Amino acid sequence: MVTTWALLFAPVPAASADPPDPTVSDGACPDVEVVFARGTGEPPGVGGIGEDFIDALRSKIGEKSMGVYGVDYPATTDFPTAMAGIYDAGTHVEQTAANCPQSKLVLGGFSQGAAVMGFVTAAAIPDGAPLDAPRPMPPEVAD
Questions:
Q1: For 2-8+29-125, which CATH class?
Q2: What is the pTM of this model?
Q3: pLDDT (tens digit, 9 = 90+) per residue, 82-123?
Q4: Of 32, 46, 117, 120, which one's alpha carbon is 20 to 30 angstroms from that of 142?
Q5: What is the 3-state secondary structure (H, E, C) of 75-90?
C-alpha cells in the first residue's frame, strides 16, 4: 500500500522529545518506509521539512521500524531536472514494493518535491509531459 503526502506550505507538528523509534539500518525490510523528495534549494537528503515530517510520523508509529529514503535529484530552479527525481523515487518505490511487500510506503514531498511525488503516483502521464517521462506506477505496486 502506498500513501502519499504532499507538503506545500502546511504547518508541521513539533517534533517529539521522546527517543526515536527503531530505524532500519541492517538492510532488513522496515515496517514503514518513508520516501521523501525535498524542496527546491534544500540540501541533499530529505530536507528540513522532510526531517520534521519524519519526526512527526515517527512519534505516531510506536515501536514499528522505519526506513527513510531521500529522493536523489538536483532540486534546483532548473525544474526539468525534477525528472531525475521522478525516476529515482519511482524506482525506489517499485524496488521496495517488490523486495519488502509487507512494508508500508509513505511518500511525501515539499514544494518541488511534492510535484515529483505527485507525478510518481499519477495514474496517467500528464498532458505536456516530455516524451521520456516515466510511465505510471504499475497498479499492483500502487495498490
A1: alpha beta
A2: 0.80
A3: 999 999 999 999 999 999 999 999 999 999 999 999 999 998
A4: 46
A5: CCCCHHHHHHHHHHHH
Query: CA-CA distances (angstroms) from residue 46 to 6, 128, 130?
Result: 13, 28, 26
Rounded to the nearest 5 degrees, what angle is found at the Cα of 48, between the Cα atoms of 44 and 52?
A: 130
The answer to whether 106 and 54 have CB atoms below 8 angstroms apart is: no
Distance CA(38)–CA(93), nearest Å, equals 16
108, 116, 119, 115: which is closest to 49 by C-alpha? 108
Domain residue ranges in the chain: 2-8+29-125
Q: In what order do the strands lie in the sheet with 2-7?
A: 2-7, 104-110, 32-37, 66-70
